[in-house]
Amino acid sequence: MILVAGCAPLGAFWVPPDPVSEATPELPTATPAVRNVTMVTPTPVPLEQAVEIDEAGMVNRLDLTGDAVQYWSNPNNIHDLLYDGQGVWAATYGGLVRWLAEDDYRLYTVRDGLASQAVATLALDGEGRLWLGYADVDGWTVRQGDEWQHYDTRRQAVEANHGTLLGATRTHPRMWSTRAESNWIWLPRGDGTVQAYDGNRWRVYGQDSGVTAASHWVDVSPEGRAWAVGQGVSTAEEGELWWDDHTFFSEVTGAADVTGVVVDDQGAVWVGFANQEGGGLIRYNLAVDRWEGHLPEINPAIPAQVHALELTDDGTLWVAGQGLLSYRAPYRRFHSYALGDLRVLSFARDGQGQVWLGSDQGLYWLDLETEELQGPWVIPSPLPDNQITGLAMDAGGIIYVGTPRGVSWIDAQGETDLLSEMGVTWLGTCAEGVLWAASTVGLGRFVDEDEFEWIYDQGPVRTAWLTPDERAYFVTAEGVLMRIDNAGSDEAAPEPVVDMLTWTGVMPGNLVVDSLGTVWVATAEGLAQVDADGTRTLHTAEDGLLSKDVRAVALDVDDTLWMATARGLARRLNDGRWTRFTTESTGGGLRSMDMADVSVGPMGDLWMATHAGLSRREPAETQWSYLDVPGAQRIVYDGQGGIWVATRAGIYRICVDALAEP
Fold it and tell me: What Cα–Cα distance (Å) separates residue 326 from each residue in 35, 412, 442, 476?
């Protein structure tokens, strides 16, 4: 019998954990440099009020006839963990999960009062209230008794709760940081700058004050030295206006690599990082003005990729990442627990010798004395991952959702299952409605449910476009635009068209090909045009774009081009005339000038993903409608009155009738 817990919004399958003993050992005083832990898989235990489900096919069924706006996600990729003395809170892009020791859990989502499913960070204030930070919403949410109160801006939250935030028992450098004997609260502003509030006055620090660009982490030492971390690190004493800016250690390529930040009692900043080349831990020692590298190739007790840091009150630094949980007492060497292939994204210590580990595959529990590792405890989901890299519909109306960990399908009856465990970077369909996919291996198509045929297998492919005459255009990981003629034949051979990276200086985005064979490519430096004869043109704001940063391009049936940019929507007719659309000119129909995607529906209607939500433009230019959906990134219209919207934290299905006129 399969059991399902009734609190998950889509009736997710549930495998509950074993009971956790209340008698937990203390952290051992002597620990080998590396320990090998023993994996124990928990035995499923029935939950109260469990509901029996038909086991046939082991397929989740989504309710596509319920609410006009529905949402599905995977709550097993745990970005942050917090132990509050009674249980564990797990921040995931599928919502907030509450775990208790008595085989109990609850999943909190937007239906419960959260502002977004994409919960990224957790903190506890001086009254023991839980605070949530999001990946796609700037404001914060606090738990008030059994209810949730959301503040639209961080400033509102800080001003209304200054005293309780100062007394926080657990802060997060992506939310706020404090120190004893000070009324200042430090926090990233959300736009790459940092700010501080002393109870009366706000102070904002940006690049004009010396703060490093793209600063989204802020922490402060016990003595009042603040550090901002973004494209590099910058520091100032509390109350100073001017900051000292320093570039990263050479292994860190930029702000996106940073995974954790803590400031120690000596005023030095520790930065954890992970990227495609590896990862590790670095420390900037201001006294000697240099970086200290703690890298896995030098010290095997450092994770190959670091994803979480914590500094305890006694100065012990804890580090978690790929296959390791490590700790270092002040002026001591690192010691580690080996965790096999487990990718630890977050952790929480309970103070009694046990550690909860959040991974990309669920929750684990580690006893530091017995070295026993239990898990994973998961909520099976129709999505293998919340990071959606592709969205497509085949000739039969089946929706395919691509992620870095596999491809799922959803049919018109709401049944869903995993099509392939192959991680993909792009999904699309050819003229016959056959599903194609790009991955780190290359480009190919699904011949049937059990067979995938590679058309190109010579390296990673970022994006692609299929023409009606069986030509395939695609972009490699090196930024080269390639073409394959007769892509469906056994004799298909790829040939390079143009090195986009060398030409434009940036990696290309998505692309389309019009009826004349002209390739149009979205780039951060403009709209790239490659004619069939090889002529190249880069269109910028001087030609008709509101911004040269083109995020996506779509093609209408009459070769009209639509472009989603960083500052509005642009249209180019096939005779070369341009039109620009803004939030003001559309009467608010275009929800935000900051756009992510644009898609053309079968009836010529235009669908747009913006920072503020979803927008629709019907063929009559004055007919606009919208729905605010946080984090919208990709859109597919199913032709049956449903819009599928991919976000950083899962997927929405929205009925057209739910859209409102501005």
Answer: 10, 48, 37, 37
